[in-house]
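Page header: ASSEMBLY MODEL / two components / 826 residues total.
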Amino acid sequence: MRKVTVILLLVAMLVATGIVPATAQGDRPFEGQTVVVVTQTGRAIGGPVEDHAPEWEEMTGARVELQQFAFGELFEKIITDFETGAGDYDMLIFPADWAGDFMAPGYLAEVPQEILDEIDIDDVIPLYSQRITAWGDTIYALPYDGDAHMLYYRKDLINNEEYSAEFEAEYGYPLGEPETWSQYLDMAAWFNGREVETAGEMAPIYGVLEAQRRNAQSYWVFLSHAAGYGKIPGNPCFFFSCDDMTPQVNNPGWVRALEEYVQVGQYGPPEMINYDVADTRIHFPAGESVFNIDWGDVGPISYNPDASVVVGDVGFAPLPGGDEYWDYEAGEWVEGPNRAPFIAFGGWIIGVAANSDVRDAAFDFAAFMASPEMVQLLAVTPDTGINPSRFSQFENLDLWLDAGFDREGAEDYLDAILNTINHPNAVLDLRITGSAEYLQTLDVEISRAVAGEISAQEALDNVAEQWDAITDRLGRDSQLEQYRSAVGWSPE
Amino acid sequence: MQQSNAQPAYIEKTGNGTREDRVMKQVFLTPAVAVLLLLSIFPLFWSLGISFTDVQRGSAAATTTTDDGTVVEDSGFLGLGFHATLRNYARMPEDERLLTAARNTLFYVLAGVTIQYIIGFGLALVLHQPFRGRNIIRVIFLMPMMMTPVAVAYTGRMMFDTSIAPLAQLLRTISHTLGLERPLFIPWLTDGSVAPWTIVLIDSWQWIPFMTLILLAGMQAIPEDIYEAARVDGASSWQILRKITFPILLPISATVILIRGLEIFKIIDVIVVTTGGGPGSATESLTMYIFKTALTFGNYGYAAAISYILLILVIIFATIFLAAMRYLTPRTSG
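Prediction written out in full:
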């Protein structure tokens, strides 16, 4: 009995001196564990982890170590870790496009049902809760961000009646939200270099700001142009033919899109060829251009008075479409508007490495970051890289008004996103094994065309040749099967 | 056989010391040699081997059908899952991107080394002169060398921005002062013909201090009486530089040029940060191409083959350079 008393006294002393934590294991379930998180560098995507990890650390007793890499190197860092079995990362925040390379080989752990319940998965729009987080029938990642490309424009200029009359006299139609890429180019050309009023000062403005930097996220912007000219209504197979996996990247629709993407360079700043989206997100809210193409991030940034001189002057719209499209099955151009919004990227998703030795802690932190409250907060906060992906975010207008949007702007912004993701002719991003490789190949060649090294046709012919080689190497049949499944195509 | 002296055999003396000495040398050297073999020589030959294979991430397993119709998975060379092949080397002459990267890399080496040596030599001459505050200025000159290349590259990217950078502002001010109708504009990083020069400038900004440091050390080692004798003989400053300083520094010059040349062959960090290899493929280096080929495309065989081509280029450069230096360096009699 005396012995027991002595032991109890010793324990009490240790607790009092802080050597043994006062809280029980159940209160801080991951005490002493470290979750290594890997994602891209910068405030977008990585920033929220940096900002909110301390709250989770406080609750669980675990520690979060954030490792960030430039987007151009992120895939290489993660795949090298997986292939070598180094096990350096526990939780990954990565583009949904890479599912084929990460999920198919089993590098990610299946998400337990209780974690899905915890984040209220039913509140997530099905596009983001199922199509981008699963491989086959198994869910390997948590939805975090809802991504689709959209058009931003200076509505104070586009809706200006005086400008509209002048423009109409020249082009035969009034200024307005552009519905086709041709209109977009006309308006960009007309405004480019024109002195307009921005934040009370008259200064020349550029027509457009589009990311064109190589080894970055620019190729998605080109794909947004290509969707309007290369997507056949009713046929979901945009990148490849679903008959035999023939690349469509060099068909006349895609070539026209690349020619226009090159042309766009004339209507932007000279530095634009070296701009990634991180750059255009600074320059567009600074009032430097009439148009901008980007993910949903620019909406909240445009309403941030610390970063934007055009608060309330930005309009939001789905991407323009082609004024014709190439029907590769018929081998001919089809006249008429063809709006085909591009669900670029799909979104950043959160996975946990299958070989993580702190898997439970990693899933817990993943659920914390992907929780409804967290993503609601992040979506309305500028520079987080997180865009709306849940029904509740579209239904609750107050969320946006509280974040500084005006009612008209909030409705316009949410409508533009919904009209994009719900569009019957929307194009889903490439999501098969080797996606990163296919897209990196595209990146290099379109960059050569933009720099004037080779023609648009030559560039895309090179891409098609390399895509065929990649497909053959990875197995044409299995790639075809994956692609059909990814776009929801089945033989009639 | 009878021993020539009474010492036991284990301490028999030879030209290399006693047998015990030799054993101890081997004992101490073996771990170092083993580590060297394991970490350097083995990967070297392993990568050479890989360069002759088709090993690549995600390759579909090849299958063959036997006479009875059974489909058998091809286990490849020695059952290792890949095949021995010359395809990586055969592909190279037709790989336009590789040739461009090789051409860019050679440009970086030749332009970079030339600029860095000339300016480094000039700065060393200046810093060799006695003037007030020389020591602090020497330290300031060395600071870029102490920065990480990525930080240097980000600094360079900011400096060479064409709209908001100080250089752009300077050009606009000059244009305004000169009353030019169109402001002076240099597309530092956005034009394929200018961007490689900008990369060289950024790299040079960091590494000129290295040249300066070594050459300055060489200059300080030249005995002052040689200069005094030359001045007594009526030599001008230019003659002293051309006939004394430069020839005496040639061996050191050869060393720094070789070190920098070999380093520039491996340039990647500055390029990734400033241009990402663009515009187009105007600034992509061989190392960057190897990195992408191996880690983005998972084509380890081809990446290894290109690495060996880079190695051969480096060896050719070093051999030609050293031969030229031997020819140019004045020989001492004797």
